[in-house]
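User: Before I run my own analysis I want an independent prediction to cross-check against. Here's the chain; please return only the structure tokens and, at the end, one sentence I can use as a sanity check.
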Amino acid sequence: MKGILLDENNNLTATNGHLTMGNVTAQCAELLINSYKGEFKNAPHLGGGAKDFTAGNPNPYWVVETKRQLQENLTPAKSVKYVNGDILIDLI
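Assistant: Structure tokens:
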């Protein structure tokens, strides 16, 4: 998916006075997973809440729910896994 790229601090990037465009698929997935439900006012059901999940509040359905949300957000994933404290996502 093509869109406006953000830097590691989620600030807009610019090159020669123009917003930088590029592949934002991984960026969209990261934003969705790190957000909480209700943060996207146009889609309040979206939000992975990864910080809660990795902080010791495990939801047994988190992986399935996150994969479904990625699909709805047009960033489909082959797999979503939680291994040894790391979230691993294989985007299509």
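Sanity check: The two ends are 11 Å apart (CA to CA).
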